[in-house]
Amino acid sequence: MYERERILFEIIKNNSDLHHNALLKLVVPEFMAKTTFEKTRNSLVDKEIISVTCKRNMKFYVPMENYEQKSFQHIEQFTNTSFHDLKMKIKRLELDYSRKGMDEKIEITSSLLRNLLQTDNGFTLLDSIKNPKKTLYRDEHLMIQQLIFKVLKVIRTDSDFELIYPTIVSHFGTMLR
Fold this sequence. Notes:
The protein is mainly α and 177 residues long. It has helices spanning 2-14, 20-27, 34-46, 67-96, 102-130, 138-156, 161-175; strands at 50-55, 58-63. It starts with a helix and ends with a helix.
């Protein structure tokens, strides 16, 4: 997907005078199929990397003027949303984890731990972008650390701990390589 977005963005950037159909002829089938072109274009519009302008009955695509800043805003928005969703999921986990089947317990906790680490990486990226000499998201990093502890505590206090824990540790061993 990233390669396709890069290709389409580069073509749009170099050919901002081409309308939709001319752009389509330039991209399809050399770089991607028509449906893929449309999905990739929609993705770039959704991420506010390109914008659509209409002149008469034709659509033109142009790079957004401040797409770098907007992309960082999207990262920040996604990371914050993910962070708050994870807090809610972990609250529910504490209530109904013991009622789940063993495979579901492994899947849920592995997913939560993976997403917590990804969200922490998102905050680290934002720290690096905004000020590489200072940790601006210190509270969020600390909360993620505490949420990881809560998930591990739920696993530890469960009756299936001895069967579940080795699988989860093994899963993270492969993730951290």
